[in-house]
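Summary of Year 1 activities. Much of the first year was spent building the evaluation harness for sequence design. The harness presents a backbone, in tokenized form, and records the residue chosen at every position. We chose the following record to illustrate the format because it has been used consistently in internal testing since the harness was completed.
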């Protein structure tokens, strides 16, 4: 164990970013106080690169600078060849880690952009045609709404299909009540009893996204309302 105490150097860095004590640093960096103690004792060679990176981010100090600060002259003088080699290994690992992080961020951005582009292509007809159709409907209140429905329905169906999402049952269908797939909007029903779909639900493979909203049949007169 090294007899060197880097506590003053660490406290100086903490003071710059308004971290009052080692416990607060532990929380801010997401590392244990044992790791912070190692840093204070000059045992940086025993610390993992990801731990050092978290501390450098919490202290707002570049990782290479953090390694330099806590690998000062006294440590280097003890065993120059070994320590210099060790510091070089840490620097190499640090550079590799940072390159990996940058590549990961770039891949995430590319995947997000690809997802957005594919979604926009599927919704192209809706994005292009719907604003015009909506304006025509405002200009001509007599225009049948049924003519506008396909502009919304077809792109939406294509998008859901590409994501592997399927409707549980179409609106208006009479089906057997299944409380795992259906949500009663009014009245009561026992499993297997007939119910009518008021709002469709969706699932993606084996995963239930939204339960279909249903009402018992025959539907009470007061429940024929638009929400």
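For this record, the design step produced the sequence shown next.
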């Amino acid at each position: 164990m090294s007899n060197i105490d880097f506590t003053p150097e660490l406290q100086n860095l903490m003071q710059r970013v308004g971290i009052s004590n080692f416990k607060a640093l532990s929380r801010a960096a997401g590392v244990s106080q044992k790791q912070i103690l190692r840093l204070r004792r000059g045992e940086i060679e025993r610390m993992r690169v990801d731990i050092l990176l978290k501390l450098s981010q919490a202290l707002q100090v570049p990782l290479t600078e953090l390694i330099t600060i806590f690998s000062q002259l006294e440590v280097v003088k003890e065993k120059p060849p070994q320590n210099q080699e060790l510091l070089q290994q840490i620097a190499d690992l640090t550079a590799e880690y940072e390159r990996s992080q940058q590549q990961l961020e770039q891949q995430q951005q590319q995947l997000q952009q690809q997802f957005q582009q594919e979604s926009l292509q599927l919704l192209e007809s809706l994005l292009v045609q719907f604003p015009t159709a909506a304006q025509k409907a405002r200009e001509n209140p007599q225009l049948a709404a049924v003519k506008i429905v396909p502009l919304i329905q077809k792109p939406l169906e294509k998008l859901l299909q590409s994501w592997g999402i399927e409707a549980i049952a179409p609106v208006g269908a009479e089906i057997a009540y299944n409380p795992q797939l259906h949500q009663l909007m009014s009245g009561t029903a026992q499993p297997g009893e007939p119910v009518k779909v008021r709002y469709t639900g969706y699932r993606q493979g084996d995963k239930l996204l939204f339960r279909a909203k249903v009402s018992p049949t025959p539907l009470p007169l007061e429940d024929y309302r638009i929400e």
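The beta strands are 165-167, 174-176, 182-184, 194-199, 202-204, 207-210, 212-216. Quantitative recovery figures across the full test set are reported in Table 2.
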